[in-house]
Amino acid sequence: MSYLPHTRADQEHMLQAVGVSCQEDLFASIPPGLRLGRDLCLPPALAEHDLLEHLGQLAARNQVAGRSSFLGAGAYRHFVPSLVETVTSRSEFLTAYTPYQAEASQGTLQAIFEFQTMICRLTGMDVANASVYDGGTAATDAVLMALAQTRRSKVLVSRGVHPHARQILSTYLAAGGGVVEELPLREGRTEVPQVGSDVAAVVIQVPNFLGLVEDGPGLCQAARQAGALAIVAVNDPVSLAVLEAPGAYGADLVCGEAQPIGLPLSFGGPYVGFLAARKELLRRMPGRLVGLTADGQGRRGFCLTLQAREQHIRREKASSNICSNQGLCALAVTVNLALLGPEGLRRAALGSMSASAFARERLARVPGFSLAFSGPSFHEFVLRCPVPPEQILEGLAERGILGGHALGREYPELADSLLVCCTESTRRRDVEELALELEALVQAPVEVTR
Amino acid sequence: MIPQDLKYTDEHEWIRLNGEICEVGITHFAQEQLGDIVYVELPSVGSKLTRGQTFGVVESVKTVSDLYAPLTGEVVEVNPELLSEADEFKPELVNDDPFGQGWMVRLHLADPSELESLLDAAAYKKITEEAG
Amino acid sequence: MKAFEPTLFEKSRPGRRATMPPETDCPQVQPEEVLPVGMLRQAPPALPELSELDVLRHFTRLSQLNFSVDTHFYPLGSCTMKYNPRVNEKAATLPGFAAIHPLAPESTVQGALALMHSLQDCLAEVTGMDAISLQPSAGAHGEITALFMISRYFQDKGENRTRVLVPDSSHGTNPASAALAGFEVVTIPSNAEGGVDLEALRANLDSTVACLMLTNPSTLGLFETGIEEIARLVHEAGGLLYYDGANMNALMGLVRPGDMGFDLVHLNLHKTFSTPHGGGGPGAGPVGARGELVHYLPGPCVVQDGETFRTEVPRHSIGRVRTFWGNFLVLVRAYAYIRTHGSQGLQDVSQAAVLSANYMRVRLQERFDLPYQGTCMHEFVLSARNLKAERGIRATDVAKRLLDFGFHAPTVYFPLIVEEALMIEPTETESLETLDSFIEAMLTLAEEEPQTLHDAPHTRPVGRLDETQAARKPVLIWPE
Q1: How far is the alpha carbon of C471 from chain B, nearest alpha carbon, in Å?
Q2: A11 at interface of C, judged by CB pairs closer than 8 A
Q3: What residues in A contact B41, CB-CB < 8 Å?
Q4: Class of C88-341 per CATH?
Q5: Would you tell me which CATH number, out of the four given (2.60.120.10, 3.30.420.10, 3.30.300.30, 2.40.50.100), belongs to the domain B7-111?
Q6: B87 band by pLDDT with thresholds 50, 70 and 90
Q7: What is the extent of the structural domain holding A380?
Q8: pTM of the model
């Protein structure tokens, strides 16, 4: 199988033009001792038919997260209209390059401009970039901006921020860029801390990893009073239909993962991080930005802007090394939001909240189970279990149910707890079925084979 | 395009002396090399600069260049029209009138003896001829 | 073609509706009943209100304003804009891949883990590395990941190595990544042949050097013939050698970075392994390492235990560099590409890419300057300096005029060491007829009236845009 168009005659023609007798002559500059001189040890090549069969077999060994999934923890299964994939699979978007040649990329550029606009309208911020790798790296980018802006070295990060995001931040700051201090949770929510004058930023997540809605205004105010930047990581942008825009309660930087508003679960990627800021921070924004301008004849057009600060020109003095955006993923988000509109987004948010409120109440009534926290939540909650949650999850998985996320590894104090999520596609009978299965599992714990 | 009454540095900055206050900007040659200037980042009033230290950046569509303090001193004034948050933000002044309205900061000089290290117009002209 | 398409926000009409999410049958709760007062949204987000057909037409029209590999030839140097096979796309939409949750119990996602494990093995074999992490999301992300590993590795060895060497021809992300990882960057000049200047390298090598970042073939498209000597020098000084895999398309199955002496690599799956660029992403930038360095890879990685697969964090791992495991659906596509080709297929790809590049080089060097002579690998760099001197035609003019001929522009003004650079990479999937018509266009435009080129493009929906105004007064969102 091959995608090579060259016939034998084409090859001869090209070799002759180059003035060599065989392809091997073109590699004469490589020291012979370095040549591999054998075949690569790779699995054998497959024809398309056989490849699809092979991939189909691999795919069949994975359990699809369908209606009976209660797993969220940073990746959410909301309804995505069919039209999203119709648009993102169009050749002209899928196989286009980065829009450096603006005249040949107006489609990509305008779509990014629309994405930037939508992110600002959702978050209540002044500017947003063209997207970054994912929600976790977006939080690190926001912190790096705050460190540079304030020239301070300490960052206060709530333990309610997604554990992966906190781990990414540690990896990046280990190279000497700053110090992370964790803000503890009380009753599952972040207490308003004393913020010292050495603090560059306070980072919170709303709703937090445990599903609870934080005191956004209080936490942002504490940061800003100390001259630190308030960074709000949005968990599941669907929540922004009903939760206040972080910009309205004092956030300086807003970041988050936009997967829930347009992308499939995809085993964790590709996803799309967003990053929005107050306009004073615009010049510190990493990654790409698209701006509106005009050509010589006054015709409206879009182009990448503020690029001189980036690595192609600035090299080691660049403020960031990011040299891409999740273009196609951002496009999916833009199409999805255009279809949902304010009403669709609100309907998804209300449905998720309602299903979650129902499940919360129903599952807490299963003997032996109880709610860990009583604070306000959006669509996720923590359920204490009478037997180890890992065991429950394995038991449920055997019945085709993804019961949630076991919290013990990241939160040892919640080793007996599951994080359970519902969305607008969760039905009453799915919740009832989960409740019955939990009851059955606890009454007659099954031997779980590993 | 090299006024005789100013002093210069080899980083293409000019200095206009006025008692203990000196005004700093970039030269005509520098703005021409940079092209259309789109943004200038300046220190805040009250900042203390040490000679040779970077105190800001000037950014054009195609490149970014650091600004180096020509003298040690305290910033007493920055050009309000070059502050990007200002409504009347006019970075083009650096292109259009580099030695006048395109000035960047005014410094209160800390050590007058440093003035001796600056170049005069003739010495600076030589530098631009070699660079150009 | 319509000159411009109004934004979604201009087309929006209050009350217009498209697809709606399902209604849950659970009892409805209202936000006011559940959420704290201070956190209730006061005004709904001003998203556009459109019909489904409005949205489809809008994005269809936007798409028609784009160039893409499926519609146009992209001779973009260092970007490897090859054909993106559709069977890979089909694979990525299988529900067993697209609809699985990243935190599902490992026992329920064995197929996904098996695929990742096999891809790790394949990429390790292609690069001659001992282990691979699939986490990094892009090439630049892979670079900084490797630099974090280097930093931690020397820290553990108790060596204070603070400097990273990069050639002056390197990708701009190399020095940017090194600086962000906390290193001091030292630029090594190129020699007259475009390779690393060995004298300058020797002069800069000492016990403070952590690594040399190298692209081979270089961004000039030339194989670094002194690579064995370079590797020896760097290793003798106690440093590491890092391979920027942007140009791996020249060497698959022919030479491996590991065999050249490289200790760490990153690959760009969206270049060499054919995953679509998507207008700027998503890509994937897996990192490989040899020897002790494998323990520093970001985790978790996928390991095999008899018949089952599970994830494991390497012993001295630098930690996570992203959420979850990697850009999984990009990995699926790259895996499909490798399985389509096998060993011989990948070798054929590289040989064809190199032949095509050399064919274009000899045809174009008749009219354009070729500052660095000799057989090239998968790409080459021309200079428009002779056209500029003769007729005032610059690299930008060539790039913009090519759009009128129906070709995407080459990479221009890079590498920085070539004046008026035009960096051309045809890739292996373009036919001889396409290469010939591009060559024809280049030779034609070189003789055109200079003004025609200065005013180009003439056939696109917009002409050259005012980038100065865009940067002075940035308008980054549509006003509410």
Answers
A1: 6
A2: yes
A3: 283
A4: alpha beta
A5: 2.40.50.100
A6: confident
A7: 341-443
A8: 0.96
